[in-house]
């Protein structure tokens, strides 16, 4: 039981002690208030963002957040993230100002920020797009598994996209993506043999050619997106390998091929590869079947709006648009669509 | 064609509804595995009994070119393109172009 010190000297001591404690508390309140002065009037989310931006270097996502429509903008955005992380600085990815978006960019962004080499082992912070529909898409994609965020946005009641990643050729995972997309599109899951073939060819290309080291294999990312209201589904496949044009077979092919003499570029090589010229040029009929098979599916109308981006080439096969990118893209990217028409 | 005239093989039923890549090291249900475990034994049985091998390509999720090239191409390397073409009947209602594609792989197959 505590003894109450009520006699003379103890009373003055207690009074002094109380005064000291009061001064200490007031000082502490003033100190904390001073520290909070920059955050007065802000919501908790806003306070979190402001603190994050102070310690992190902010990289703002382009308003046109679409790799198939704005490849240079997205490449520049990703390059800034890479450069900042490489310098050892923490990255804050600002998604607030995104106005237009295509789902292909999601797969690309995920493949980069999940790559420890790309992010130099750092985990970035991020906010959510101000548009609630886009915020839900980001939440469904698994993006917030790879970034720190104060509050993960709520996803919609039904999923719009499905993502897979692996190093091996996984036909079952390809089928899962197709079932996800076709269920949304047709009302029930069903095979789509052309998309299955395209996905398998992409996985095999990554497994066999994306890495210079034959004993190492790059990770591929594949995403299916389907919005029943749009009546179409899109598929995106991406890897962070060396790209189609830097694979060993292509380098040898370029050296031997007369295009080098005629000073043509990778756009022409891409067209030749799509048309199946590559296999015949190297003399190995087993090689070079993947992209021609994908192109055949496109020409047969089984897939639409095919886009291929690798190294310094952007090929929008659907629009017959081939151009050299201002900044090279590290890896290989393919995107295509199917519809229920 | 009756069972007296041919030996039947359905890839979906006898191997997998979800065929995979070219080689085993790439992933499961490869063309290499299909060739060694299903296609080659059935083809050998067909040859021994002087029947044709009827291969049903339907009801699968879809084929990679390398899967078909590895399996039927190896058959051609082993027995010769003409023998294989004479002994094989291919059925593909889902994707009619597959029969032509496989015949091309058989004709173009070369030892590695």
Give the CA-based shape of chain A: elongated
Give helix % range of chain A.
40-55%
Radius of gyration of chain A: 27 Å
Order of the strands making up the biggest sheet of chain B: 1-2-3
What structural category characterises the helix and strand content of chain B? alpha/beta
Q: Looking across the biggest beta sheet of chain A, what order are the strands in?
A: 6-7-8-10-9
Secondary-structure-derived class of chain A: alpha/beta
Radius of gyration of chain B: 13 Å
How much strand of chain A?
15-25%
**How is the biggest beta sheet of chain B arranged?**
3 strands, parallel
Short description:
The complex is a heterodimer of chains A (about 350) and B (about 110). With about 350 residues, chain A is α/β, with parallel strands linked by helices. Chain A contains 12 helices and 10 strands.
Task: Outline the fold blueprint.
The complex is a heterodimer of chains A (341) and B (112).
Chain A: H1 8-36, H2 44-55, E1 57-60, E2 64-65, H3 71-86, E3 91-94, E4 100-101, H4 104-113, E5 125-126, H5 132-141, E6 161-166, H6 171-186, H7 193-209, E7 220-227, E8 232-239, H8 248-256, H9 258-261, H10 266-274, H11 277-282, H12 290-299, E9 304-316, E10 321-339
Parallel strand pairs in A: 1-3, 2-4, 3-5
Antiparallel strand pairs in A: 6-7, 7-8, 8-10, 9-10
Helix pairs in contact in A: 6-7, 7-12
Chain B: E1 6-10, H1 11-14, H2 31-48, E2 52-56, H3 65-79, H4 81-87, E3 88-91, H5 97-108
């Amino acid at each position: 039981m505590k003894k109450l010190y009520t006699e003379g000297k103890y009373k003055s001591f207690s009074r002094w002690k109380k005064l000291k404690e009061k001064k200490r508390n007031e000082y502490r309140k003033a100190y904390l208030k001073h520290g909070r002065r920059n955050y007065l009037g802000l919501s908790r989310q806003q306070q979190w963002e402001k603190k994050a931006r102070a310690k992190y270097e902010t990289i703002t996502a382009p308003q046109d957040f679409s790799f198939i429509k704005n490849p240079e903008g997205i490449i520049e955005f990703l390059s800034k993230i890479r450069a900042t992380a490489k310098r050892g600085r923490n990255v804050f990815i600002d998604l607030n100002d995104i106005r237009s978006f295509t789902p292909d960019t999601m797969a690309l962004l995920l493949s980069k920020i999940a790559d420890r080499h790309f992010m130099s082992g750092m985990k970035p912070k991020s906010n959510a797009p101000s548009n609630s529909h886009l915020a839900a898409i980001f939440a469904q994609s698994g993006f917030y598994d790879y970034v720190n965020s104060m509050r993960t946005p709520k996803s919609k009641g039904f999923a719009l996209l499905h993502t897979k990643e692996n190093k091996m050729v996984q036909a079952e995972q390809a089928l899962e993506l197709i079932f996800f997309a076709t269920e949304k599109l047709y009302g029930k899951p069903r095979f789509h043999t052309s998309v299955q073939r395209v996905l398998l060819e992409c996985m095999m290309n990554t497994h066999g050619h994306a890495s210079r080291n034959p004993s190492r294999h790059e990770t591929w990312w594949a995403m299916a997106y389907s919005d029943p209201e749009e009546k179409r589904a899109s598929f995106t496949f991406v890897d962070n390998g060396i790209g189609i044009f830097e694979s060993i077979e292509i380098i040898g092919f370029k050296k031997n091929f007369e295009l080098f003499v005629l000073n043509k570029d990778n756009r022409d090589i891409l067209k030749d590869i799509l048309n199946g010229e590559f296999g015949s040029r190297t003399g190995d009929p087993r090689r070079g079947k993947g992209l021609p098979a994908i192109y055949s599916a496109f020409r047969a109308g089984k897939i639409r709006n095919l886009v291929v981006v690798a190294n310094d080439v952007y090929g929008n096969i659907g629009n017959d648009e081939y151009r050299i990118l201002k900044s090279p893209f590290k890896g290989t990217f393919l995107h295509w669509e199917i519809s229920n028409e | 064609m009756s069972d007296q005239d041919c030996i039947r093989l359905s890839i979906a039923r006898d191997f997998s509804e979800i065929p995979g890549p070219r080689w085993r090291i790439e992933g499961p249900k490869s063309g290499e595995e299909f060739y060694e475990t299903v296609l080659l034994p059935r083809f050998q049985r067909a040859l021994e009994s002087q029947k044709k091998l009827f291969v049903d390509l339907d009801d699968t999720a879809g084929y990679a070119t390398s899967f078909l090239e590895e399996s039927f191409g190896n058959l051609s390397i082993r027995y010769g393109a003409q023998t294989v073409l004479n002994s094989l009947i291919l059925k593909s209602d889902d994707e009619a172009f597959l029969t032509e594609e496989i015949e091309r792989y058989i004709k173009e197959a070369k030892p590695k």
